[in-house]
Specification:
By secondary structure, the chain is mostly beta strands. It has one helix and eleven strands.
């Protein structure tokens, strides 16, 4: 994605208002919603919203396995990011790269593989307006 277009999208999200708060996890990941907006387009015939999120992972830390109620589009702002979805092999993305997560896939690996330096991402998630969470924790199987 062109960096100029991405900057415009982020600016639009920030200008749209929406919730702004940080969520810190015990797993070394912090998540901050930087903007949210209802959109005209529907997702599976459902009223839809887009949420922009900044994710920061400390060196060597991982996020918890989770799923999203809609597709996610992610841009790596800083550092490196190791991603594993469903049963696919993990892949490392570097600053300036993007990736896509399909609706409902298991985001099983979310890690900063570096020993030094944070990983920062911007995620754009499309989801039903009535979704209670945009990252639904995966229940542990016993």
């Amino acid at each position: 994605m062109n960096r100029g277009i991405f900057a415009i999208l982020i600016g639009a999200a920030l200008g749209a208002g929406g919730m702004t708060f940080a969520q810190h996890h015990e797993d070394g990941e912090s998540v901050k919603i930087i903007g949210a907006r209802d959109i005209k387009e529907k997702l599976d015939d459902t009223d839809t919203k887009v949420t922009f999120v900044e994710v920061t992972l400390n060196p060597g830390k991982s996020g918890l396995p989770h799923r999203h109620p809609g597709p996610g589009f992610v841009y790596v702002l800083e550092g490196e990011y190791e991603l594993g979805i469903d049963d696919q092999p993990t892949k490392v993305f570097k600053a300036g790269e993007t990736f896509y997560e399909p609706t409902g896939c298991l985001h099983r690996v979310s890690k900063n593989p570096a020993a030094k330096g944070n990983t920062r991402l911007i995620a754009v998630v499309l989801h039903p307006r009535d979704a209670k969470q945009i990252a639904v924790p995966e229940l542990k199987k016993e």
